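Dear colleague,

Thank you for sharing your sequence with our group. We've completed the structure prediction you requested, and as agreed, I am returning the results in plain text so they can be pasted directly into your records. Please verify that the sequence below matches your submission; if there's any discrepancy, let me know and we will rerun it promptly.
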Amino acid sequence: MDSSKNLKSEAAAFDKRIEERIKAGFIPDIRRAVKCEYFYKSFFRDPYFIKLYLGNEINYLIGRLKKFSYRWGVEMQFFRK
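Please find the predicted structure tokens below.
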């Protein structure tokens, strides 16, 4: 299989997986996370666990984006302090 066929096949598999997750209730936007038992072994199953695991990193990155992005017009705070 050449690389363009590999990329198309990989893209199709990725799209299929995302569609399955969305049907199961997953929202692929960490700022709008909701409980989703589809991820029974993952911290993505509950916004509380997402905050515990990624909260500091997310807020750090959001802070850097706010500081260095001159055109940010969207509320960037993920976790309220």
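Summary note from our side: The longest helix spans residues 47-68.

Kind regards,
the structure core
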